[in-house]
Design brief:
alpha+beta; 128 residues; 2 helices; 4-stranded antiparallel sheet; Alpha-Beta Plaits
Amino acid sequence: MAINLFKKQEEGKKEIVKEPKKVVAKTSRVDAEKTSEAWKVLKFPHVTEKAAAMVDDNFYVFQVFPQSNKVEIRKAIETEYKVNVIDVKIVNIPRKKIQRGKIAGYRNGYKKAFIRLKEGQKIDITAK
């Protein structure tokens, strides 16, 4: 066993008492009806002839923000419209090059979500 010759001797050795860490609970999930944050995920319903025909098969089409994912979209639809979502499919529509005479540009791309609901449930898109 080695002896440390360079260490100073402490006369009144004080005990260091560590305070226990305060356990802070993560923010609990607030009731979804009170704070609906669907506006951060959903842009608007995508109303076209094809989307209107898909309503017969319980599919609804929405344009969503590019950073949103399937789980967020499912929660937003369920809280906003009070329905049960069975399936969510996502399609990224790329931007397209357009030209008007000599002026060339791009039409914006977007993200589209296909929502399948439980049988017998409907979303009234015209009401919102």
